[in-house]
Amino acid sequence: MSLSLDEVRRIAALARLRLAPEDERVFAGQLSAILEYVEQLRELDVSGVEPMTHALAAGEAAALREDEVLPSLPVERSLAAAPAREGACFKVPRIIE
Amino acid sequence: MSGAGELLERSLLDLSAAIERGEVGAREATEAALRRIEASDGRLGAFLTVTAEAALRQADAADARRARGRRLSPLDGVPLALKDIFLTEGIPTTCGSRILEGYLPPYDATVVERLKGAGAVLLGKLNMDEFAMGSSTENSAFKPCRNPYDLSRTPGGSSGGSAAAVAARLAWGTLGTDTGGSIREPASFCGVVGVKPSYGRVSRYGVVAFASSLDQVGPLGRTVADAAALLQVVAGHDPRDMTSSTRPVADYRRDLEAGARDLRIGVPREWMAGGVEAGVEQRVREALALYQKLGARLVEVSLPHSRYGVAAYYIIAPAEASSNLARYDGVRFGLRARDARGLAEMYAETREQGFGPETKRRIMLGTYALSSGYYDAYYLRAQKVRTLIRRDFDRAFESCDVLAGPVCPTVAFRLGEKVADPLQMYLADVFTITCNLAALPGLSVPCGLHPAQGMPVGLQLVGRPFDEATMLRAARALEREMGPLPGPEAVSMARGVS
Fold it and tell me: Is this structure's pTM higher than 0.90?
């Protein structure tokens, strides 16, 4: 399994990650090596095996509860760590030109 | 200050008993720990934030409660410290990342609430691999942490600061998190006790998420009883974490001294089948022989799919991480890149500047594994392999009560030794990872020093789901038989200073 530079760029774009050109090359090599290692999962016959989609066994997790209104974080505290805000909103750069 | 040095050598429960009897004040203990941190942490790098003033305030409050005969718990007045992954209201929480530098959380994690409610004194926040991704704490964006037994070696990771702080006597106990071995591996490398409870035993509310189906919070302590006492306080159902279990919490200290007689200890063939450093294997085999001497029965078991654990993990964990880390986008908290033109550019630049190389690598890996056309081949297949791994354990536990083997194939490696080869770093977790995939409890308990290298070796014990009690009892039986591990040399150096 070998990842091309184009694939690395495509994945970075999906992950909203900008990579420096030298990082693209390093990652192409390292990710290829990891994916090659992971290939060994193909040796196993997993037909008929259910995926483990929950870490807790059935009946282990909390039962569903009534939907009740509980206090949530006040707006001011929710906004306190925002890099930019305007009024009671998070402010972001222009989305549509 | 020999009195302070002696105080720092005590276990958490010994200190607690001394506070209870009025022989030692919480302030005295807190001051001793803060002085030790001041004197030795410059070299060690275990702490990212020290909250001295708040700690002294909490200590005074604990002393006042004690004077009124109103101690809240065995942790009341005991100085502890937390991995910097736990949200602490108004106290910087970075998760070892530049993207959260300076972030002040608006609320406490449930485990922090519980420790505060038990009266514990919180000394500060501990160093870690960025977003808990790593096995050496070298991925911390701020500084490396070193091993108290040998400053040229890593303390392990990702909870490296949590293990180093306990080993160097900077705190009487700490909390860490374990997604693939991040409590057990550093505990093994630093010669302390580290416990990863069953998935769902401890609330993850307010714990910065890495891989949500694998992450679990657990204690690190100097003794098995110390770790059990810490677990007792943080374990239990939390309505704010939908994956937290409603099972009642056992009394972890009740049967701790019950010994190993009649215990059936399963030894997975695959864990002892080579690839383990000779000195590590020797100490592990000696520990197994001690168990026999104590009346336990060794049973050979097999975990045939365990060799696929690392491969399955490096699909599942990065996939979950790539989703969890999508929230770091420069909008609601943390870093935002300046002068970006438009929203999309702001996202990409913020994430380029804020994340370190290992975090980027895992986001890339996870994004790839989940991307269109690859989901079935990677993620779905890995989740099926996870089922096979869990079935192996279920079968093994039909003939034994607890499993035993090495925590790690080696003792602590040197700083820089594995940074250039991510896959080699991942393989440090080969024995710990399957326990997370199967959602089981596991721990590391010291079983001696490597005969040639003089570094601590940990024995791993793995229990049935939610049977932390048996695993802790087995660990205590070994600890009692072996006596305390020789303390780190760096500690004796620091002792001269404080």
Answer: yes
DSSP A62: P
Fold of A1-44: Histone, subunit A (1.10.20)
Beta-bridge partners for B175 = B82, B219
- Most A CBs within 10 Å, among B305, B368, B421, B430, to test the A interface: B368
> With an 8 Å Cβ cutoff, is A1 touching chain B?
no
Inter-chain CB proximity B331 and A57 less than 8 Å:
no
Helices (H), B135-275: 160-167, 184-190, 224-234
Helices A5-14 and A21-38: crossing angle in degrees, nearest 10, is 90
CATH no. of B2-270+281-303+394-497: 3.90.1300.10
CB–CB contact B364 A94 (8 Å)? no
Residue ranges of domains in chain A: 1-44
Asked whether the beta carbons of residue A56 and residue B243 sit closer than 8 angstroms, the reply is: yes
- Picking from A39, A46, A62, the nearest residue to B239 by CB comes out as A62
- How far A3 CA lies from chain B's nearest CA (Å)? 10
Closest CA to B317 of B265, B358, B257, B288: B358
Instruction: List the catalytic residues of B.
Output: 83, 158, 182
HEC string of B248-304 equals CCCCCCCCCCCCCCCCEEEEEHHHHCCCCCHHHHHHHHHHHHHHHHCCCEEEEECCC
CB B294 within 8 A of CB B261: yes
Q: B408 CA to chain A: closest CA distance, Å?
A: 19
Of B332, B349, B383, the CB nearest to A90: B332
- Which of A8, A25, A39, A60 is the best mutation test for B, with the most CBs of B within 10 A? A60
Closest Cα in chain A, distance from residue B484 (Å):
36
Q: One-letter amino acid identity for A34?
A: I
Cα gap B295→B291, rounded to integer Å? 7
Per-residue tokens: A4: 């091309």
Say yes or no: A8 contacts chain B, CB-CB below 8 A.
yes
User: What are the pLDDT tens digits along chain B (498 aa)?
Assistant: 447 789 999 999 999 999 999 999 999 999 999 999 999 999 999 999 999 999 999 999 999 999 999 999 999 999 999 999 999 999 999 999 999 999 999 999 999 999 999 999 999 999 999 999 999 999 999 999 999 999 999 999 999 999 999 999 999 999 999 999 999 999 999 999 999 999 999 999 999 999 999 999 999 999 999 999 999 999 999 999 989 998 999 999 999 999 999 999 999 999 988 789 999 999 999 999 999 999 999 999 999 999 999 999 999 999 999 999 999 999 999 999 998 889 999 999 999 999 999 999 999 999 999 998 899 999 999 999 999 999 999 999 999 999 999 999 999 999 999 988 888 888 889 999 999 999 999 999 999 999 999 999 999 999 999 999 999 999 999 999 999 899 896 444 544 443
How many CB atoms sit inside 10 A of residue B366's CB? 27
Q: b/e per residue, B318-343, with b = 16+ CB within 10 A?
A: bbbbbbbbeebbbbbbbbbbeebeeb
C-alpha to C-alpha distance for A58 and B390, rounded to whole angstroms: 14
B411 Cβ contact list (under 8 Å, min separation 6)? B189, B277, B279, B280, B450, B453, B455, B456, B457
